[in-house]
Design goal:
By secondary structure, the chain is mainly α. It is 59% helix and 6% strand. The chain has nine helices and seven strands. Helix 2 crosses helix 3, helix 2 packs parallel to helix 4 and helix 3 packs antiparallel against helix 4. The radius of gyration is 43 Å and the shape is elongated. The N and C termini lie far apart (168 Å).
Length: 327
């Protein structure tokens, strides 16, 4: 039986794997929180995809790969089958995506949560043992059934709790605390499954197929870095609640639909009722007499009108005759 060492480089690899799981869990919780507040199916699908990448790709699979960097078996070199390794990544993301789709649509109930936890936990366990099956070495892998069952139970419980946290946690401190707990659960499942492993070396040593860890390290590290940067950029570029409220206000102003402020309440009737001006009844056939506007007098700039006595009642008609001398 081959001697197994899970910490070939000391505590560096488990510390890095835990940091990756916490980082991916925190980003996944934030993205999953956006699913509940999304306004359309397209937005929900987008945030669900990002959450599946953060949780399945970073918190689970990248953590698994980083921990496997410290795995070694005495007397043989370890290589990896690239297609199976890539398939384990897809399995993790699909499992998390299905779980988020179940709990992220509709009202969150216990049935939805348990169903999502089963799919996600099964995906996490399948990812782990698919990644183990991708190892190529001069020996045969064996597993302790009891510890394998324990690791699957841990995966199911951890996945259910993670989905519940993803749908309920909103505040920053709670997200960080939840990510720390999720990191412990993911690493606990991984190392429990690894403790179930035993290696029986072959008598004859042959050529080992596959790619060494050094050949996978650079592309996987780059994928993780660009994935994390992309997630952070997507979260920073997404509009917040205040941004959406401001955009709605501007759109309402541009459309002329700014709401009119309501009047203050008048519970005891102190305010006088507003009387609308009376409108004349319609006159479709012109029966109503036209309204006559009184004629305005012509302007009198030099004051001639005030000295004139013509046509005034009691005024004497002017005459050129002189008064009678006999009078």
């Amino acid at each position: 039986m081959g001697e197994i060492n899970h910490f070939e480089y000391g505590w560096i690899t488990p510390a890095l794997s835990y940091a990756l799981s916490v980082l991916g869990s925190a980003l996944g919780l934030v993205c999953a929180g956006r699913i509940r507040t999304a306004t359309g199916a397209g937005q929900r699908a987008w945030w669900g995809l990002l959450a599946a990448w953060a949780l399945g790709g970073t918190a689970i699979w990248a953590m698994h790969f980083m921990a496997m960097l410290g795995f070694a078996v005495g007397g043989t070199r370890i290589r990896y089958d690239v297609p199976l390794t890539a398939a384990s990544t897809v399995i993790a993301m699909v499992g998390v995506g299905i779980g988020l789709a179940i709990v992220g649509t509709g009202r969150l109930t216990a049935v939805r949560l348990l169903a999502g936890g089963v799919f996600t936990g099964a995906g996490v366990a399948a990812m782990h043992y698919t990644g183990m099956a991708a190892m190529r070495l001069d020996g045969t892998l064996g597993y302790d059934p009891l510890r394998v069952t324990l690791s699957v139970v841990i995966a199911l419980v951890a996945a259910t709790v993670a989905l519940w946290l993803a749908m309920t946690v909103r505040r920053g401190v709670a997200i960080i605390a939840s990510a720390l707990v999720m990191g412990i659960a993911v690493n606990g499942m991984h190392f429990t499954g690894m403790s179930a492993l035993s290696v029986h070396l072959h008598e004859g040593r042959g050529a080992t197929t596959g790619t060494e860890v050094s050949g996978l390290l650079v592309p996987i590290v780059l994928a993780v870095i660009f994935g994390v940067v992309g997630l952070v950029y997507a979260l920073l570029a997404a509009p917040s609640d205040d941004d959406r409220a401001g955009a709605a206000y501007v759109a309402a102003r541009l459309d002329g639909a700014t709401p009119v402020p309501e009047a203050a309440p008048d519970p005891v009737g102190l305010r006088a009722p507003r009387v609308a001006p009376e409108q004349p009844a319609p006159d479709p056939v012109g029966l109503r007499a036209p309204r006559v506007v009184p004629e305005q007098p012509a302007p009198d700039p030099v004051g001639l009108r005030s000295r004139s006595t013509l046509a005034q009642p009691g005024a004497q008609f002017p005459s050129r005759r002189k008064s009678d001398p006999r009078s």
